[in-house]
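Consider the record:
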Amino acid sequence: MTQLLYVLVGLVGGAMSGAFGIGGGTIMVPALAVLFGLSQHAAQGTALAVMLPPVFILAVMRYYQEGHVNLPMAAFIALGFVFGALAGAHFVQGVADANLKRAFGILLVLIGLKMIFK
């Protein structure tokens, strides 16, 4: 059941990444910290591990050296992320630019408020 939740986080993160160009920092990091109780360092390290090849390899290696990467969790989330990104990118093609911009702004504000007050 836990692995299914990890895949779900990957799907949502991937969908947001495909739709808005975000996912790791704004979706997965808060989800890993709030839903799964990871420390901020571990949430960031694990989210980076999901997106490892090739952009974040050096940052992931540094987090890994400090013990802040949960590799099994990152693998399951990455599985969902791949398909979520495809779905998000497909869906957003029919959304008007102005509506997409508004949705992106609302998403960022909501995430910011959650991080400030939770």
The chain has a mean pLDDT of 87. Residues 2-117 form one domain.
